[in-house]
Specification:
The protein is α+β, with helices and mostly antiparallel strands. It has 5 helices and 10 strands. A 10-stranded antiparallel β-sheet has the order 1-3-4-5-2-7-10-9-8-6, with helices on one face. This is FAS1-like dehydratase domain-containing protein. One of its GO terms (molecular function) is (3R)-hydroxyacyl-[acyl-carrier-protein] dehydratase activity.
Length: 288
């Protein structure tokens, strides 16, 4: 790299940022059944079946391959400092925007597995709120010499959302065939952050939420919502998922209940979480 990361806010040097494309990391882990049972406790699910040899529930691979950096290597937001594996995008807010997964073969709890990750694309757009930079990371979960899961993880970088701003997109969802309530409390946010070693301060530091990133309260993790939707899809479909795609539309804040919905779409399911005003917080599609 011939340039430094001294790019100023509002000055997106896309050519420089794209020098991160192809950057790769490989990590190994054991899919501990104990961690899975702790996740079940966090979501108030049954734990007895989560033993070595049982199938890993969909999206629970996010409990593993965790990067444990010292505090001196974290940024102000609690994430790893920019410019390591991910590019140094000069925009204040970094959010897990969505992703898509393919489940090629089941993977068992207790297995020794490997994850290969690389930056696959970096794009710059202009939205109503200003500059947006989208970084996509491709993850491959390998069980021996077989790729068990392929995942494209979309990260968006943006400036703080002004108070009172509304989403520019309002998806129209079908009539649900199944609905159930879900509300994360502060204990669930704490436990999920701990289980995924997620240091992002929007999930536990109210002053930081309000004063720096512009949220009125703690933010419910996007991956937590996605996990709830994937679990509902597997339960309703009564068979393993083959594909799952999700996208965050509006943040869900602590103290705001959600309605978790599903509707059939041929052999697939459309799923979404709805805020009390009916707007969509996260939408997803599941195929079997």
């Amino acid at each position: 790299m011939t340039q430094t990361s001294s790019v100023q806010v509002g000055d997106i040097d896309l050519e420089f940022l794209r020098t991160w494309i192809g950057k790769e990391v490989i990590s190994d882990d054991v899919l501990s059944s104990r961690h899975a049972r702790l996740m079940a406790a966090t979501l108030s699910l049954q734990q007895e079946s989560l033993v070595d040899g049982a199938a890993l529930p969909p999206l629970w691979h996010w409990l593993y391959f965790l990067e444990g950096l010292p505090a001196s290597e974290l940024g102000r937001d609690g994430h790893p400092a920019r410019g390591g594996f991910l590019p140094p995008v000069p925009l204040a807010n970094r959010m897990w925007a969505g992703g898509s997964l393919e489940f090629h073969t089941p993977v068992a709890l207790g297995s020794n597995v490997r994850k290969r990750s690389y930056v696959s694309s970096i794009e710059h757009k202009r939205g109503r709120s200003g500059d947006l930079v989208f970084v996509t990371v491709r993850h491959e979960l390998l069980d021996g010499d077989k790729v068990a899961i392929t995942e494209d993880h979309d990260i968006v970088y943006k400036q703080p959302t002004p108070p009172g701003a509304t989403s520019s997109t309002a998806p129209v969802m079908p009539a649900p065939s199944h609905s159930e309530s879900f509300e994360a409390n502060s204990t669930m946010l704490f436990r999920y952050s701990a289980l995924t070693f997620n240091g992002h301060r929007i999930h536990y530091d109210q002053d930081y939420c309000r004063e720096v990133e512009g949220y009125a309260n703690l933010v419910v993790h996007g991956p937590l919502q996605a996990t709830v939707l994937a679990g509902l899809a597997a339960r309703l479909g009564q068979r393993p998922l083959k594909r799952f795609r999700y996208r965050g539309m509006r943040p869900n804040l602590l103290g705001t209940p959600l309605l978790v919905n599903a509707a059939p779409d041929g052999d697939a399911l459309i799923l979404w979480t709805a805020l009390p005003d009916g707007s969509v917080s996260m939408q997803a599609e599941a195929a079997f």
